[in-house]
Amino acid sequence: MVFWRSKKKSDDSPPAQPSGPAQQEPSTARDSPATESTAPDQGPAAANPQAAPPKAAPSAAAPPAAAAESSAGLFGRFRSGLEKTRRALNTDIRDLFKEEGRLVDDEFLGELFAKLIRTDMGAGPAEELRDDVAKRYRGRKVGLAEVLESITAQTQAMLQQDAAPLNLPGKPSVILVVGVNGSGKTTSIGKLSHFLTSHGKKIVLGAGDTFRAAAVEQLTIWSERIGCDIVTGKQGADPASVAFQTVDKAIEIGADVAIIDTAGRLQTQSNLMQELDKIRRVVGKKVEDAPHEVLLVLDATAGQNAISQAKGFSDAAGCTGIILAKLDGSARGGVILPIRRQFELPVKFVGLGESIEDIAEFDADSFATALFAD
After folding, report:
1. If we measure between CA atoms, which residue out of 4, 57, 47, 61 comes closest to residue 227?
2. 324 bridge partner residues
3. How confident is the model at residue 48, as a pLDDT?
4. pLDDT by residue (tens digit) across 22-59?
């Protein structure tokens, strides 16, 4: 059975963590859900007894937020979100220098390479950054500022990508969000939904991760905070049915965007990948060319393991872009470099903190500058 919960906006307190342990994935046998809509429990108290009484949901005609952040504002947010990586890099690179500077020779270049690779950027990008420093300064005595300038400029060049705004061609546009459990997928959906709502978009969420009751509960709490509608199903229900009903509801209420969560899966789980393909087919029958985006959430704290995830998903799931989550919780922010080198997928958003507002559209220049800012 599929349920629809109409929008109710709760207070701005952080979403409560779901009570009870996460459920184990069931066998491939699934419930055959009915397509009727059932009235949900009213108010956020059903999911969070501690929540304050809901506020009125925002009007669909609410004015959009500022269209784009200033470069200074975006740099500040990246600088804050990359603090752990930035501090580690600056401390490590600064340690290479004496007060009067350092001769750029083989010893220095080897030490610089070792410091860079600690951010999980991988050998290839670290070699390119080292070689650029060697090309500019070999045989000269240089200071920290000169080396950081070289590394920043080269990193900006390595991260450059064509403009990659979300593809939202009509009403409703459909976004699937994929990734492994623990990557920050559900939280990223909440942040993305808030981002789009603040830009004047009307959102419907689909809780397609029906294997885990905790995922459905968490996404429901996010919907209450944001003030958007959500479609859910019983635990173990067919995710494709939830996806179908989500798009159907988006059409019915005139929503701009339907964002559908999917079961957390490993890129090697063929049966779950087949299920994802079924979801794609189902939503494509409701809306032409849907899904219009398939966003892969990668955990920055996973470092090089994120590369393996990206490789599997980009081939099997038809991904169109990446959300790099948890950058604020890791000193491995350099992992974005091999992701950009190895895959054609653009990085569309980065998660920069725990607050609902802590998501930003990716900008290579601001990101690279913030990564090596003193």
Report:
1. 57
2. 298, 350
3. 35
4. 333 333 233 333 333 333 333 333 333 233 333 333 33
pTM for this one?
Answer: 0.77
- Whether 358 contacts 327, CB under 8 Å: no
Q: At what angle do helices 270-286 and 239-253 cross, to 10 degrees?
A: 20
Answer for the pair 145, 229: CB distance below 8 angstroms, yes or no: no
What are 101-156's pLDDT values in tens digits? 899 999 999 999 998 888 778 899 999 999 999 999 999 999 988 999 999 999 99
- The token duo for 190 is 């909440």
Q: DSSP string of 93-154? A: HHTT-BTTBEE-SHHHHHHHHHHHHTTT--HHHHHHHHHHHHHHHTTSEE-HHHHHHHHHHH
Please state the separation of Cα 250 from the chain's center in Å: 22
| Tokens describing residue 66 | 């500022």
Starting at the edge strand found earlier in the chain, the sheet holding 229-233 runs 2-5, 229-233, 203-207, 257-261, 173-178, 293-299, 321-325, 347-351, 359-361
> Cα separation of 222 and 15, whole Å?
7
Q: Which region, left, alpha or beta, applies to residue 335 given φ > 0 means left and ψ of -120 to 50 means alpha?
A: alpha
Contact 137, 146 (CB under 8 A): yes
The percentage of the chain sitting over the pLDDT mark of 90, rounded to a whole number, equals 43
**What is the distance between the alpha carbons of residues 212 and 182, in angstroms, rounded to a whole number?**
12
Q: Which amino acid is at 241?
A: S
DSSP strand pairing (203-207 vs 257-261): parallel
- Identify residue 261 by its one-letter amino acid code: D
How far is C-alpha 1 from the chain's CA centre?
A: 29
At residue 14 the predicted structure's pLDDT band, cuts being 50, 70 and 90, is: very low
CB 131 within 8 A of CB 357: no
Which amino acid type is present at position 344? E
